[in-house]
Every structure is written in C-alpha cells, then in structure tokens.
Amino acid sequence: MYDAIIIGSGISGASLAYELAAYKLRIAVIEKGSDICSGTSRGNSATVHSGHDAAYGTQKALYNVMGNAMFDQLCSDLKVPFIRNGTILFAINEADMEEVRRLKHNADKNHVPGVEVLDRDGLLRIEHYFGPDVIGGLYAPTGGIVCPYTLVIALCEQALRNHVDFFLNNKVMCIQKNATGFFVTTNKTVFQTRFLFNCAGTHADEINNMVSSNKITILPRKGEHILLDKKLAPYVRATISQTPVNLPSGGHTKGMGIMPSVDKTIILGCDAHDVTDKDDTATTAIGLDEITSYFEKNWRHLPISEKIPKFPHNRIINAFGGLRPHSTTDDFIIGESEDVAGFFNMAGIESPGLTAAPAIAKKIVQDAAEKYHFEKTDVFIPTRDHVKPFRDMNDEERRQAVMENKEYGDIVCRCEMVTKAEIKAAIHSPLGATNVNAVKMRTRAGMGRCQGGFCSPVVAKILAEELSIDLTEVTQSGEGSNIFFPKNGNQAKRNSQ
Amino acid sequence: MEIRYITCICCPFGCQIEVAVGSGGIQSISGYTCNRGLNFAANEVNHPERMVTTTVRVIGGMQPQVSVKTRKGIPKSEVFRCMEELKSVEVHAPVRIGDLIRENICGTGIDVIATKDVQQINFQNFSD
Amino acid sequence: MKTYDLIVIGGGPAGMAAAISARENGCEDVLILERGSSLGGILNQCIHNGFGLLTFHEELTGPEYAARYAEKICALNIDYQLNTTVIRIDREKKVTAINADKGLQILQSKTIILAMGCRERPRGALNIPGSRPAGIFSAGTAQRIINIDGYMPGHNVVILGSGDIGLIMARRMTLEGAKVKVVAELMPYSSGLKRNIVQCLDDFGIPLKFRTSVVKIHGDKRLTGVTLARMDDRNKPIPDTEEFYECDTLLLSVGLIPENEISDEAGIPLDPSTCGPVVNNDFETEAEGIFACGNVLHVHDLVDFVSQEAASAGKNAACYIRRNGLSNKERTVRLFGSDGVRYTVPQILNPDRKDEDLTVRFRVGEVYQNAFISVFFNDQCILRRKKPIVTPGEMELIKLRKEQINQFPDLKSITIKIEKG
Fold it and tell me: What molecular function terms (GO) are annotated for this protein (chain C) (predicted)?
C-alpha cells in the first residue's frame, strides 16, 4: 500500500515525485515506457520560457513566471546545467512592432521581470548583429535553456535517493476507487494507494476519465525540431525568434526559433500539427520542410547570418519530433479533482510546461499536504551528488579521473567525449540505463555529429557485459527494439564458452 | 554472333570489355587494357569465377572470428555452397595470416586461408 | 619533456604509411597514436579483396593490406599507442592524448601528421522523416557488426546510397543469408566503383534504383519498412512514385566526412569542398610542421592512393625536420578547380620547394562524357586531355612536370577545368 502513486515520469511526474519525497509518505512512480522520461519531456525545445507571451490570467501565465524563478535554485541543487541566455523576439515591420508592444504589456501584467521593447540599436547592444530588415524587438532576459531529460533524470534520481519507488514498463490498464484509496491495475501488477497523481502526458485524459466524471480531452500536437552541429555554437547565444505574426501552423507555436542547447548544439523549431496518435513522435516530410524552408527564407535576419550567411544544410545532424499534450480547455488542468477526493491532475502540461512544472508540482503538493496533513520528513536530501562529465573536465581533472578509474581513459563516444567509466556509471546509476537510448539520454553517447556510428555497437557491448546478457538481447529502446541477431546460428555456442 | 558486354572486376578501373561469342566459342575480345582483363573476360564467358571472402569462428581467440578468403576464384555457382560449408568451420587461436582454414572447399580444389592474425586469449590479462 | 620528431594521429593505412616513410627518410622518434585496439583502422573490417593492386601488384583483402604495413611498423621499431584518443593538438605541435594505461599525456613533437580518416554521414544529416526505430545503421557500422563482432544487423535489407561500402555490404549481407531488396541512389549515377556494382549487385540480381531515395521510415521499436520515391531534379519526391518496402534493416551509405574536429579546433584552415585541411604540395597544412594525408585530407576511393599520398607526407615531414623547421614559402601559387572541378589537392603550390613533379588530385561534381580536362597556368592553357568519362565517384589525377612549372616564373595560379567535348 502506497500513500502516493504518480502515473508518468516526465517533467510533471518527476517534479511531483521530488516535491512529495520531502514528506513522510510511501511513494511510487509508475511509467509505461522502458525508461523514465520517454514521452513528451524527451522531445521539446528545451526552453525555460520567461512568461512574456502566456496570456494574462491563465494558469499557464501564473506558473510559467513562478516556475521560471525556481530554475536557478532547482538546477543548482540537482547539478543540472541551466543558462539564462535571454529571449529575443525580433520585428521586421510595424505590425511586428505592434505585437511586440502588446507582448510587453502582457509581460508586465504577468510580472515577468526585465522585459524591454527595444529599437534596432537596443537589440544590437544585446546581439552584435541582426539582418538589415530587423527594426526592433522584445527582449526577455529571464528566458533560459535547460536539457529537459537531464532535468527529469536528476529529479527522478533524487526522488529515488529519497526513497521513492519506480516501476518501469507498467502501463495503467484500469483504476478503481474504494473507501481507502485507489487500485491501479497495470499490465504487470496491481498497486494500492491513498492518493493518485495523474502525470500521464498525452494520455492524461485516459487516466482522468478512468477516475473522474469530469471528462477531459488531451490532443497530441506534434512539434518538430532540427538539430545543428555544435560547431555553430559560437554564433548562437540568445533564444531568437520572429514575432509570431503570420507564421505557419496557425499560431499554435511560440514561433519558429533558433536557440542553443546547454550541450552546445543548435535547435531550430518548431512547427505544430495536431495528430491522432498519442505516441507518434515520428518526424514528417511536411514538418521538416516547413522548418527548413522557413529558415532558408528568414536566416538573413538572424545574428548568426553575419558569420554563416546561408542556412547551413550540411550542419544538420538530426531531427526529432515531440508531442505537446494540448488540453481542449487551452490551459493546464491542475489540482485535486472536484469529484474524486485524493485524485490529482497535472494534465495538459504543454508549453510552457517544462518551465511551469516545478511550480505546479510545488503548489499541488503544498495544497495536498495542507488538506491531508502530510508530515515533512527531516531526512529529505534536496541536493544531488553528481560527478562532472568527462567532457566538462579540464586536463588536470581528467588526469585525476583516469588515475582513480582507468576506464576514464577509454573514450567510447568520440564526438561527445563520453568515457567507458561514465557509461558503466549510467548503467549502474540509481535508475540505471538498460538500453542504448537510455545510456544516450544519461551520457550523451551517440548524440554527437556521427550519431552513434562509432559508439553505439560499443555501448551495446558494454550493456551486454554489465547486465550479463547476450548482445542479441540488448535493445535500442526496450522490448522489441533488438539491434543484433545471431550470425550463422552459432551465437549461443560461442557465448557458452 | 552475340556480343557480351563485361565490366572487368580485376581492378578498380572497371574496364568495359566486349566479347564476341559465336557458335564455336569466343571469336574476339576488345576493350581490355591488361592481360588480367583479357583473361577475366574469357573466363567470365566460359566459366565465371569469384573469390569468396568471409569470416569463420575462432575458439579461444582475442577476437570471436577471423577473416578468410578462397586462395583464388572459385566457380561462381559454388559461392553459396562455399559459404554454407564455412558456416560449420571453427578454428582454434592462434591463427596466422595465410593459415589453411579449409582444404579444397566444395571440391573445387581451392583452399580457404586466413587473412588476419588472431591471437590467443591470454588468461593472465584477466588476473590482475 | 621529451620531444618527438613526429607524432602521427591515426594508425590506419594513412598513418602507417606516413610513419614508415618518415622513418625511412630519417625521422628518429616517431609515435603513432591510434584510438582503435589494433593498427589498420577501417581496413580491419574490410575483409573483401581488391586492395593493393597498385602498391603490391597483387590483390589483397583489407586485413592483409593492413598487415603488410603493420609488419613494417614493427620491423622498423616504430612506437605506437593503441586505444588512445587524441583530445587536442595545437600549432606549437603539442598533442594531448588519453588512454587507460598512461592516463592523460601531453606530448611535444617537432611535426604532426594528421591521419584520422573519415566518418560516415548519419541518417540525421539526410533529414529523412519518420520514426527512430532500431535497425538503421550506417553501412560501415553494419560491416563492423558482421565482420568484427560476428553478429547480423538484420535480415531484410534496403540500402540507401550506392557508395562502395554500401555495395560491398549488399554482397556481404547476401552471402550471410540476408535478403537485400534494393539499393536506392539519390543521384543519377553511382558513387561506387563499377566493379562493385557488377560483383556486389549484378551477381546477385540486386536492383539499383537511381534518382530514388527513402522518404519515410516506418516502425516503432524495430524498423518495419521504408518508403522509397523517385526524386526530381531538385531532390524533391515525385508524387505518386512512392513504394513501400518491408524490411528490418536500413543501411546508409551516403557519404564520408573527413574527421577534422581536432584540426579545426587547432585553428588549421579547412577547405569547405574537401572538408579537409588546406595543404601545399608537401601536404603541409597552413600550420607549419603539421601535415595531413589520407581520408582526413579528402575522401579517397582507393587505399593505394592513400598510402602513396601518406608516404609523400611522411617524407616531407622528415625533410621539414632536416631543414630545421624552416619552411620556404616565398612564392605561393594557388590551385583552383572550376567549371565542374569541385576541388584540388593540394590547394597551394610552393614552387621553390618543388624538387619533383606535382601530382594534383581532384574530383568533379557530375558525370561528363568525352570531356576535356584542361589545366591553366595563369590564363594560359598548358594541357588539355580528353577523357571518355569522368564521374564524381572516381578521383582524378593530373601530373605536372617540374620543368613545365619552372617555365612560368610569374606563375600565380593553376586552374583545372572540365571543358565539354
């Protein structure tokens, strides 16, 4: 019997687990994927929004601004890279400037700190260069970037260290309520809990509708991004997009933008298209074409065009799709259900969901704690012990690292400088990686410019060794995604030697 | 008379060779630039051959398999039988380049030899 | 701190040939740094035959070709470190490397030869829409899985790109019992060698479709199929030409990129056409005493040419040390490719240092039939050679005699052009 069960381990579930872990509760997170963070939080634009554009008066606006303010402390506690690189919306005509002034007004009502309307000279004081057509824009200094899955993994690892249980590969099939709480039946087992938290991303409506008669609808809305080589990193600093007037995708997006990632690659995107499949993160020809043709056309406005005059097709290293869990109410659905006591929603957490999630989780947990008299534990550890990645070490630290553990001298991923020591650590970490993508998400092995051409077979071999399984059993992303097959039908014999 | 167009595979230049074949066999060959090409074209019409390169399993080696080749071309029609026969072959480390792996593969009279060294696993490596 | 005469980065065919040649020309302290677990680089997984006809006048497999050089490395007592990754080099010829046994080392050398080879273009670079299931491999990765690791990457295969590795893998997977359904090539020609189309595709009845590409990838966990479509001249899919192929494996053989991250970080200028360093006729980069050869300089079709080029780079590094590091670069002549010639290597000629004929290697951007390769000294055409066919898939070469060059004391530029017949 658990006190609290959280369904889903994206940014919402992870933030809730971390907040709840501060109380004397037995807590479990159940996740249908083969790894934590395998849905919406894995593929998004990695932006910590300032809150200038969330419509005043909405939950989105409220929690966006609150969440944004929490990131410095949270990321410092969890040792997660976070950079306030600032957000710029540039304008190329008077209609754009009109929108800029409207957004400034909105930002002020939302209490977003430091937002300014700037003319061209003002913009040029922030970035050295803009295309000649740029006449001014909006600057939001609190805009930032974070790696969403690094943050989710850190939150989950810290939750685990504070005694939260995690159950992967558990898909919720049905939920029943009785006097003492909930029975949650998954494809594997049945869980019992007093309180239930719905953080199921694009599937949050299904979960809610199993429990509550206040039905909700979550529509998956696809966003696609293109990733450029980190060689361009010196030319991209702030998150920059065009003022969202007359953009494709009918205004479902915050606009096509270019932004650095904390890992120094460059993210372009994103578009927005409503789709029907709630797990379909495939990229589409239309989507990728929309992004590339937008940037081909508008590249000349961007600061990067001073040094790289044309959209650099040859610097594309990858593209990815993600799904926004869009609620038909157009706002977050958060808090205790009106008709089912003990059932809490954290649903419809689409953009600016990544920014807002820590604040929403805090608020939900505070309210629940007050109403149901949760008692704080005095052994909660908020700060994460985290070893600096090899790629961020200086020569002296590297020398020291190899002296302490030889496997730091064995570079497995050449593009991202990931060592065998770090891959083994990821496999043996609290929520250990069990497949190639899980190693990738924890270490960046395979995320560089060669996209795992050299290292993915080596990573697979290390997984096989460390998990004591045959190489044919190693998967890319969980059951059914095996990478290697026996050759000559002789494999079993070899391995039995 | 029939003209057969053959791309020479003896070397990377890939000469285009024309072979005129009549009822009594080859009548003329043109387009080759070396003797190897001439011989290849004649063979390709009469009894085409291919060298087979593959791997066989190694027991107790630093690597799980060793690369091998037929010492020279075997009849093209025997290529898959050669692969099949080599599937069951196992050799013990150490293996040296040129070591005989299989004599007279598929009765072609041609041997299969190793094209790589594979050292024995040195068990002392594991006892530190 | 010990100062090496030469540090060679990479122990593949280029690195080995360069080190041997440097030693034979008088370099004493030579060190090869190799990140793999044996010398030979990519040759170790190229188990097919077809190597060495020019160098050894016999047809060898990749491992045999590598072994010839590795034996010589041992015979000449050339020092090497395996499983060693070079993290950084600088213009002062300091090399920072790391491995498990020696840890982090900072090594000083008088010269450096860059011989890091190249990497394969990944799927991401092609921007193919669709999901990201298991079963998509670059052809070289699949080659390693089969030939080194001893596993199969899958059984029903579509290959995108008709580069040599893709063609070789079509045969290799077929021999191992897989079904290769089709090879799709975006361009109207193959970038692979003709002999490989014959012996790897035609021999097994594997169709090769030109002007065709993968437009969608299907499958959630493991690949279940790909959609191919014909492409128009702007490389956009032609409507209603889509065809679904059921497969569990997609191999990509869509180009090689010289691996120049450490050269770039050291501020060594790169040629945007080759993606390799700009070099002079000594294969010296614009950073003095740092040379480059093999696939890190520009992608080659034949390992024999890599070895030749590397031997020359090695010799020149040895000369550089004999001259006590002094480079005589008084006069520089630029080499240009134009009218269909994508690039030349070298890009710079220092004629005063030239004591032998100049070999210029280059590639064209499209297929030309019965065209002329013309060489211009300044504006004057000094050579015009008819070729029945030139294709982007095959590197071309022109030799310019020393006397020819010396006849032009005010030579400023050499331009190589394709002129239609």
Answer: oxidoreductase activity
**Per-residue model confidence as pLDDT tens digits over B45-81:** 889 999 999 999 999 999 999 999 999 999 999 999 9
Phi and psi dihedrals of A71, rounded to 5?
A: -65, -35
Residues A212-239: tens digit of each pLDDT: 999 999 999 999 999 999 889 999 999 9
Contact (Cβ atoms closer than 8 angstroms) between residue A476 and residue C133: yes
Q: What is the pLDDT of residue A495?
A: 40
CATH topology of domain C122-254: FAD/NAD(P)-binding domain (3.50.50)
Find, among A324, A222, A229, A326, the residue nearest to A282 by Cα: A222
Are B64 and A497 within 8 A, CB to CB? no
Higher pLDDT, C325 or C72: C72
pLDDT band at A494 (very low <50, low <70, confident <90, very high): very low
DSSP codes joined into one string, C287-313: STTEEE-GGGTS--S-HHHHHHHHHHH
Task: For chain B, say whether A178 makes contact (Cβ under 8 Å).
Answer: no
Q: Which residues of B touch A490 (CB under 8 A)?
A: 57, 87
Given a cut of 90, whether residue C327 has pLDDT beyond it is: no
CB C308 within 8 A of CB C327: no
Does the distance separating the beta carbons of B57 and A494 come in below 8 Å? yes
pLDDT tens digits for C139-175? 999 999 999 999 999 999 999 999 999 999 999 999 9
Domain positions in chain A? 2-41+148-217+328-372, 87-141+219-273+283-321, 390-484
Examine the pLDDT at A491 and tell me if it is beyond 50.
no
| Nearest-neighbour CA in chain B from A126: distance (Å) | 57
CA distance C220 to C168: 28
- What pLDDT sits at residue B128? 41
Q: What mean pLDDT comes out for the span A159-165?
A: 97
In the CATH hierarchy, which top-level class contains the domain C1-120+256-326? alpha beta
- Tell me if chain A has a CB within 8 Å of the CB of B51: no
* Neighbouring residues of A142: CB distance < 8 A, sequence distance ≥ 6: A50, A51, A68, A69, A84, A86, A112, A113, A114
CATH topology classification for B53-126: CPE0013-like fold (3.10.530)
C269 DSSP assignment: -
Q: Which fold has domain A2-41+148-217+328-372?
A: FAD/NAD(P)-binding domain (3.50.50)
pLDDT tens per residue across span A242-288: 987 655 544 455 578 999 999 999 999 888 888 889 888 889 888 89
Chain B adjacent subunits, 3+ CB pairs under 8 A: A, C
Q: Do C64 and B55 touch (CB under 8 A)?
A: no
One CATH from 3.40.50, 1.10.10, 1.20.1330, 3.10.450 for A390-484: 1.10.10
Question: Which of A413, B12, A132, A84 has its CA nearest to residue C194?
Answer: B12
Q: In Å, how far is C206's CA from the nearest CA of chain B? A: 16
How far apart, in whole angstroms, are the C-alpha atoms of residue A410 and residue A432?
A: 20
Is residue A199 within 8 Å of residue A155, measured between CB atoms? Answer: no
Whose tokens are 């940014």? That residue is A11
Instruction: Summarize pLDDT for C310-324 with one digit per residue, the tens.
Output: 999 999 999 999 987
The domain A87-141+219-273+283-321 is placed in CATH, from the list 3.30.2130.30, 1.10.3720.10, 3.30.9.10, 3.40.109.10, at 3.30.9.10
ipTM score here?
Answer: 0.93
CA dist., res. A111 & res. A65, Å (int): 7
Q: Which of A49, A52, A203, A301 is catalytic?
A: A49
Q: Under DSSP, is residue A260 helix (H, G, I), strand (E, B) or coil?
A: strand
Nearest to B12 among C63, C195, C203 (CB): C195
Mean pLDDT of A340-351: 97
Average pLDDT, chain A: 93
